[in-house]
């Protein structure tokens, strides 16, 4: 039961935490005037564009979850709920990015 709660907490905390952290970046003078919509074609380590970094992080967590689940399927290891935590984190960060783009839509600019 604790493991299910832990996974749900990761899923719930990620969007709220992302909204808080990126809300601070909105007022940061070193942040870009306009943030570009997350894209695979942009540098995720350009810290003036924080959405790119969290976009990469969400897909890293998603890849980790998929590899872990495939490993569980092909091995003799029995399923354990902690294997779903990276999936909950990835979903939470992707949801958080959508929430940030909705709340701060005046700061978001589409890539060409």
Question: What can you tell me about this protein's structure?
Answer:
By secondary structure, the chain is mainly alpha-helical. Helices cover 62% and strands 4% of the residues. The protein has 3 helices and 2 strands. The chain has helices at residues 2-26, 50-74, 85-103, and strands spanning 35-36, 108-109. The chain has a two-stranded parallel sheet with strand order 1-2. α2 packs antiparallel against α3 (85-103). The radius of gyration is 16 Å and the shape is elongated.
Write the layout of secondary structure elements.
Blueprint: H1 2-26, E1 35-36, H2 50-74, H3 85-103, E2 108-109
Parallel strand pairs: 1-2
Helix pairs in contact: 1-3, 2-3
What attributes characterize this protein structure?
112 residues, mainly alpha, two-stranded parallel ribbon, 3 helices, 2 strands, elongated
How would you write the strand order of the largest sheet?
1-2
How many E-type strands? 2
Strand content: under 5%
Cα shape: elongated
H/E element sequence: HEHHE
In short:
With 112 residues, this protein is mainly alpha-helical. The protein is built from 3 helices and 2 strands. A two-stranded parallel ribbon has the order 1-2.
């Amino acid at each position: 039961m604790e493991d299910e709660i832990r996974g749900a907490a990761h899923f719930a905390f990620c969007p709220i935490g992302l909204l808080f952290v990126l809300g601070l970046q909105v007022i940061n003078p070193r942040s870009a005037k306009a943030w570009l919509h997350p894209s695979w074609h942009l540098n995720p380590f350009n810290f003036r564009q924080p959405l790119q970094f969290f976009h990469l992080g969400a897909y890293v967590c998603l890849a980790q979850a998929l590899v872990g689940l495939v490993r569980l399927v092909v091995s003799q290891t029995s399923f354990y709920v902690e294997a779903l935590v990276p999936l909950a984190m990835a979903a939470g960060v992707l949801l958080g990015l959508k929430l940030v783009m909705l709340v701060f839509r005046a700061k978001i600019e589409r890539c060409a």
